[in-house]
Each structure stands twice: as C-alpha cells, then as structure tokens.
Here is the input.
Amino acid sequence: MKLIILITSDVENGLEVAIRWQDAGAPGVTVLKSFGLYSLQRKMMGDSLEVPLHIASSMTSMMAYVLREMELNNHVLLSVVPEELVSTLLEEARTVMGDLLEPNHGVAFVMPLDQAIGVRVPGSN
Here is the structure.
C-alpha cells in the first residue's frame, strides 16, 4: 500500500481531484484544510495586520494569533491505495491541476506504508 498526498492552494480543483480519485477506485480520500507557513509569514509582514499589544510580545504568539484569524487556504488530500493505483491517481491530479512542476499548481508525493490498518481494499469484503 502507498500513501498519496496532494497539497494545493487551488481549493476548487483540489476538491475535483478528490472526487476523481474516489471515482478512479481510491478506497477513501481525506481532505484537510491547511495553511502554508510562507502564507502565514507574509500575512504577518503585511501592513493591514493589527495584533493586540499583549500578543505582540513574541513571534510565536503573533503567529498563533494570525493563524486563528486566517482563512485556511490550502487543501491536503490523503489516500491510502494499492501501489497499482498510484499512477492513475497522479494522472488524475495532473489532468485537473496541470503540470505539478509549474508554480502554484500543487505538490504531490507518494510514500510507502509498512502497514495500513483499517483500510478497505477494493475488491475485498
């Protein structure tokens, strides 16, 4: 089994990829909202940021405050799939997102899993 992960700030297309993965046979697809540290740092450097004085005492306090106020602007898709399904899912991501080597299209990676407990395997009961 493999863990396939796609991270994108293109929320609409990210959801389209999740649906395509499911339709292609992924036993399950989890979609998490997230933020990128770079976006958080840029928000902190912006002129429009008003942080209460008692919070501005440390960088981590400021970052935590800004994070609470920020909209989560990324999606992380996770799916545990049989190895033979990986190339199909990556192709589905490319079809929707475009070339992932291009900036701002997303980042995908695949990790081997030693164990996958509780994962429904297509074709088994």
About this structure: DSSP finds four helices and four strands in the chain. The two ends are 17 Å apart (CA to CA). The domain at 1-35+72-114 is CATH 3.30.70.120 (Alpha-Beta Plaits).
